């Protein structure tokens, strides 16, 4: 069966969801023209303005959670911790006599009396 331009165009017009294109010795690939993710509710220009998430991007996109690496991965795949990148928590020497508490009561005013206007 030979495929001409008119056959391909008629096939395209009858099935708007997929397009058949000839490529490399009569092998045919189907290219999807459907838009997914909110396409029912938003226009194409509106979907472009939405924030990019891992659901909307390609498979190589990794957004992360905002955490930073505390080392590096070697060529062998091992993770080496860098002590300069580690998070250090500074704790007071004597916690029993330390005046500040880890939590603040809701009754405490947000601004100091001298800073109020």
Descriptive overview:
The protein has 117 residues and is α+β, with helices and mostly antiparallel strands. Helices cover 13% and strands 15% of the residues. The protein has two helices and four strands. It has helices at residues 5-14, 44-48, and strands spanning 18-23, 27-32, 71-73, 79-81. It has a two-stranded antiparallel ribbon. It has a two-stranded antiparallel sheet with strand order 3-4. Mean pLDDT is 73; it is low at 15-25 and 27-35. Its main location: mitochondrion.
Using brief descriptors, characterize the structure shown.
single chain; about 120 residues; alpha+beta; two-stranded antiparallel sheet; two-stranded antiparallel ribbon; 4 strands; about 15% helix; flat
In short:
By secondary structure, this protein is an alpha+beta fold. It has helices spanning 5-14, 44-48, and strands at 18-23, 27-32, 71-73, 79-81.
């Amino acid at each position: 069966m030979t495929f001409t331009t008119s056959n391909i165009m008629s096939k395209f017009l009858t099935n708007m969801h997929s397009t058949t294109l000839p490529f490399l010795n009569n092998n045919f690939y189907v290219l999807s023209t459907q838009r997914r993710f909110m396409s029912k509710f938003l226009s194409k220009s509106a979907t472009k303005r939405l924030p990019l998430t891992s659901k909307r991007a390609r498979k190589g996109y990794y957004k992360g959670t905002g955490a930073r690496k505390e080392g590096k991965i070697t060529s062998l795949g091992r993770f080496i911790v860098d002590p300069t990148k580690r998070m250090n928590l500074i704790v007071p020497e004597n916690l029993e006599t330390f005046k500040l508490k880890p939590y603040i009561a809701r009754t405490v005013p947000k601004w100091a009396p001298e800073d109020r206007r």
